[in-house]
Design a protein that fits this description.
This is Sugar phosphate isomerase/epimerase. By secondary structure, the protein is α/β, with parallel strands linked by helices. The protein contains 10 helices and 8 strands.
């Protein structure tokens, strides 16, 4: 598919996104001079326990982590998976581990959210106890519940895209759904998955930047087919331009490094990605 035709950009008038309310702000993590936080999506270290992932994220130089459901916690919890329904026993230990390594939990996902307020509250209570900035999800069918609880808890809902043909691969789908709704609702912009879907991530970001709440940041070798992740700056994605476009629109969320390659030995590459984001921030503060 030709790139020119692969992305149907949102109409220019929709870029204003008539909205209500105000988005949540980052928790007290170390924010870069450019205004964003650098976190590691723990899926990057899915072959390790959560406690190991926190240690590795800190070793790479990140100051935040994006947690995901079901990751084995480790330590005294052994193989027990991270579970919002077990917040009272798990959250204190996770926060203590994060504090030990100078890391803050920032987002949680990608996670399902039931279209039931009582059940969804379990997730939002968990997120509030962790002090999260956002919940990453693809549960567009639970939009009314998500909007209500996002406002009540002051937690962003970041709608994530997987590649074509998944439900939210086209940014128009989320854009039309959240237009006119509260500012807590926005995008988790996975730029690698847009590339895998034949779209130029920079052009997508230009069309939706005011509603981007977080990133799953990647670099790739192609914008016509799937390729594995590469250290930032060594692929073909226009990362400086993407960061500049987000900054132009006041982006002040978290950028999660999601590195889905070399699963057992990616720490040096993740550290390189952290360094790239820090350097860009210092040069463009």
């Amino acid at each position: 598919m030709k790139r020119r035709n692969a992305l149907k950009l949102l109409p220019a008038s929709s870029l204003l996104f008539a909205t209500r309310g105000a988005a949540a702000v980052l928790p007290p993590v170390s924010v870069t001079p450019a205004g964003y936080a650098i976190s590691v999506q723990c899926w990057t270290f899915k072959e390790f326990t959560l406690f190991e992932a926190i240690e590795m994220a800190a070793a790479a130089g990140a100051t935040g982590v994006e947690l995901f459901p079901g990751q084995k916690i480790g330590g005294d919890f052994g193989d027990a998976g991270l579970d919002p329904a077990k917040a009272s026993e798990q959250v204190p230990a996770v926060l203590a581990k994060c504090k030990e390594h100078g890391i803050a939990p920032v987002n949680f996902g990608v996670t399902d959210v039931p279209n039931d307020e009582a059940q969804a509250r379990v997730l939002f209570d968990f997120a509030k106890q962790l002090g999260l900035y956002g919940i990453t999800t693809e549960a567009l069918g639970s939009l009314d519940v998500l909007e209500k609880l996002a406002k009540e808890y002051d937690i962003n809902v970041c709608f994530h895209n997987h590649p074509k043909p998944t439900a939210l691969w086209n940014p128009e789908t989320v854009g039309k759904a959240i237009e006119g709704r509260d500012e807590h609702l926005g995008y988790c912009a996975d730029i690698g998955h847009w590339a895998s879907s034949g779209m130029d991530p920079l052009e997508v970001v230009k069309s939706i930047a005011p509603r981007i709440r977080s990133f799953h940041f990647k670099d790739r070798e192609s914008i016509t087919e799937w390729t594995h992740d590469r250290p930032y700056g060594t692929g073909i994605l226009k990362l400086p331009e993407i960061l500049a476009e987000a900054k132009k629109h006041g982006f002040a969320g978290n950028i999660s490094i999601e590195y889905e390659h070399n699963w057992n030995s990616s720490l040096p590459e993740v550290a390189q990605c952290v360094g790239y984001l820090r350097a860009w921030s210092k040069l463009n503060a």
